[in-house]
Specification:
alpha/beta, TIM Barrel, 8-stranded parallel β-barrel, 10 helices, about 40% helix
Length: about 250
């Protein structure tokens, strides 16, 4: 596994132009004291170009939160991978549980979006995770491994990408799995990645996401096969997000 972790902030449907001050504060702090980890922010599509312009000389990378599987055409309201790239994004979150649950996205849909992101030059962060019912039924490993196998197309071979494990029941709830549970699922994710893509998949980071905070980041990031974090609410505050970044 790569030794450099990836800490990515997902702003979700939050943020207006005035909130870019948070991104600038983060970039200024990292300029004063560079991080050991890669750092990315994934704002709403409306903010990508502005954030890219304001952070163009910084260490902060920029990503989108979703992309269409289509390259262009009559898809009102959709945003293509090429549009994200053109606006300044270098990464894109795909298959987040909020997309899977709220928009009915399947593993096949996620794989199609990955296929669209790669030729546009975007590095996908592919999300997987079980619901509380699946966790309580003892099916967490089975469900997550199945999502990995079905959501990662073979075209990822030789490309830069990450997988993010986000237990659905831990997102925004303040709840987190035990460190042992995180280790178990991350090991299963790695095994599924290698089974799907071969030995080359051993270097792609597996991020943990779900109520990551400055006070629990260090212990989570020290778990074997945790190659970074996908951070929600805490990434909206520069000091909180920086605390997580420093923990890496």
């Amino acid at each position: 596994m790569s030794t450099q972790k990836l800490i990515a902030g997902n702003w979700k449907m939050n943020g207006l132009a005035a909130d870019l001050v948070v991104a600038r504060e983060l970039a200024e702090a990292l300029a004063r004291e560079p991080a050991a980890a890669r750092v990315a922010l994934c704002p709403a599509a409306t903010l990508i170009a502005q954030m890219n312009w304001q952070l163009k000389d910084s260490a902060v990378e920029i990503g989108g939160q979703d992309c269409s599987p289509e390259t262009s055409g009559a898809y009102t309201g959709d945003v293509s991978a090429a549009m994200l790239k053109d606006a300044g994004a270098g990464l894109v979150i795909l298959g987040h549980s909020e997309r899977r649950a709220g928009h009915g996205e399947t593993d096949a849909d996620v794989a199609a979006k990955v296929e669209a992101a790669l030729p546009a030059g975007l590095e996908p962060i592919i999300c997987v995770g079980e619901t509380l019912a699946e966790r309580e039924a003892g099916r967490a490993v089975e469900v997550v491994a199945g999502q990995v196998m079905a959501s990662l197309p073979e075209s990822l071979n030789g490309k830069a990408f990450a997988v993010a494990y986000e237990p659905v029941w831990a997102i925004g709830t303040g709840l987190t799995p035990t460190l042992e549970q995180i280790e178990e699922v991350h090991a299963a994710v790695r095994a599924a990645m290698v089974a799907r893509l071969g030995e080359g998949a051993r270097t792609a980071p597996i991020l943990y996401g779900g109520s990551v905070k400055p006070n629990n980041a260090a212990e989570i990031l020290a778990v074997p096969e945790v190659g970074g974090a996908l951070v929600g609410g805490a990434s909206l505050n520069a000091a909180d997000f920086l605390g997580i970044i420093r923990a890496a």
